[in-house]
Amino acid sequence: MPAEDWYGPDAATFGDRLAAAREYAQMSQAQMARRLGIRASTLRYWEQDLSEPRANHLSIMAGVLNVSMMWLMNGEGEGLDAPNADAAETDSDVATILRDMRDLRVTISQSSEQLGRLEKRLRAVLKDT
Questions:
Q1: CA-CA-CA-CA torsion sign (103, 107, 110, 113)
Q2: DSSP characters over 46-65
């Protein structure tokens, strides 16, 4: 995988880029949350791609982490270089594993949403009987 694609939209999520930039800045989640004026759990949700920040928090994060808002959102623009870029280029297994992990995360998220809809339908049917 080319170094410039490490944090690209096909290899990393918003949460992946946020966590990487925070770790590169040597800040804990608690420290970053304090700087943003949010709860640490909110930052955890963002890093786990369970929710997304509003534009005002995104702007502050970009400034605190010294990356562009576009890089945080989609991996384009000023951001971090790939970690250990030489090793990543020579090990295609790493790219495959990362891609598979991302695909699995999407599948799990979609399955969770589907399960929620089914549960809601079941409750409605049980309520009517």
A1: negative
A2: HHTTSS---HHHHHHHHHHH
- Letter for the amino acid at 129? T
Interhelix angle 29-36/40-47, rounded to 10 degrees, is: 110
- pLDDT at position 117, please? 92
Tens-digit pLDDT profile for residues 26-49:
989 999 999 999 999 999 999 998
CB distance 74 to 9 below 8 Å? yes
The pLDDT score that the predictor gives to residue 102 is 79
b vs e for 31-56, b when ≥16 Cβ sit within 10 Å of the residue's Cβ?
ebbebbebeeebbebbbebeeebeee
